[in-house]
Design goal:
heterodimer; A: 201 residues; alpha+beta; Nuclear Transport Factor 2, Chain: A; five-stranded antiparallel beta sheet; 5 strands; 49% helix; B: alpha/beta; 2 domains; elongated
């Protein structure tokens, strides 16, 4: 969980020198990164009193780049098709909110550990893309990261999975959900997510 | 006369036996038995981690196919999977390279998704290479050694 949050924090840094064409997935990731960095460095948004406002603005930026609902659906894996339309709506809302809050709010924490980002390149297959980069911490340790993105109906590239050190966020949660559903039930899974997500209805 | 016919059939039997063994050996070497029928899909991994032609492909611990071919493409491992007929893979399925035990045989595990089915000769987009324990340990060690003083 920590390392995933750390990788998502990469979106904040303006770094990397690889040339990218406009509107490419990598350009989109870098643009979001720049926007978030501006927010975090804004003198008018510093301090504990401005924390809520800062978080809200960062979340709004990440909302533009991340397809949290697609991530939630992917995390449920094969169990998705067995759910009713109402359950699908409930799960997507619940888990995408969980991902959004969990990772957006940790950005500022992990920002302090990052030194630079070296963008390695992008690979496109139709409406699917992989953007690869290496995060370097201040302790000079490299962490390879891969953003998996898909172009939506509006033509925007959205991140649906983040792979750090070869470990996929979606695979991680899919395995956990699979185990919980196999051991108990889908209803138990919903209760566990709600227990870890205090603002859930 | 009878003895000659008997020897002829013994010789024929031996020849057929040797021929059958030769064919069997060749088919085993080519791993053809598990490839009879089914369909191909491709998956690209950043690291092949010891996967080879013939490595098993499992879903929930059940073998559903074998690796048909592995090749280097753009400095990545491009793997062709032969999936048994009747086994449906989804576009958002995830293929991971795993090891049986700590030093055991390498295999590919597929975690099913909830999306549309992959057509024959399609691609499993999302993959995970095997965990590189040496790299993780070295980073852990390096992190402790090179961590700047507080």
């Amino acid at each position: 969980m920590k390392i995933v949050s750390f990788a998502l924090a990469a979106l904040m840094l303006v770094a990397g020198t690889a040339a990218v064409r406009a509107d490419s997935p990598m350009a989109e990731v870098k643009a979001t990164t720049e926007n978030i960095l501006v927010l975090l460095k804004d003198p008018n948004l510093q301090g504990e009193s401005k924390k809520a406002e800062r978080q809200q603005l960062v979340r709004a930026q990440m909302e533009k780049r991340f397809a949290w609902d697609q991530s939630a659906r992917a995390c449920l894996g094969r169990h998705w098709t067995r759910r009713t339309p109402e359950e699908k709506t409930e799960f997507t809302k619940l888990f995408s909110d969980f991902l959004k809050e969990t990772y957006s709010d940790k950005i500022a924490t992990y920002y302090n550990d990052l030194d630079k980002i070296n963008y390695q390149g992008e690979k496109l297959i139709d409406d699917y893309a992989q953007v690869k980069l290496v995060l370097t911490t201040k302790a000079k340790i490299d962490h390879p990261v891969e953003y998996r993105m898909q172009k939506n109906a509006s033509g925007d590239w959205k991140v649906y999975d983040v792979v750090i050190e070869g470990i996929s966020l979606v695979k991680n949660y899919r395995d956990q959900f699979d185990a919980i559903i196999a051991k108990s039930s889908y209803e138990e899974l919903i209760q566990e997510i709600k227990a870890k997500h205090p603002s859930a209805p | 006369m009878k003895k000659q016919r008997f020897e002829f059939f013994v010789g024929l039997f031996m020849a057929l036996g040797i021929l059958s063994l030769a064919i069997l050996s060749i088919r085993i070497a080519r791993n053809e038995f598990s490839h009879s029928g089914g369909y191909e899909v491709q998956a690209v991994f950043t690291n092949g981690n010891g996967i080879r032609a013939g490595s098993p492909i499992l879903i929930a611990g059940v073998e559903v196919g074998r690796v048909k071919q592995i090749a280097l493409k753009d400095y990545e491992a491009q793997i062709v999977l032969m999936i048994q007929p009747g086994v449906v893979l989804q576009k958002d399925a995830i293929a991971s390279i795993k090891t049986k035990g700590l030093i055991g045989e390498k295999y590919i595990e597929i975690t099913p998704g909830g999306g549309e089915p992959i057509a024959p000769n399609g691609v499993i987009r999302d993959t995970e290479p095997a965990m590189d324990f040496e790299a993780i340990i070295s980073k852990f060690v390096q992190g402790n050694v090179s961590k700047p003083a507080q």
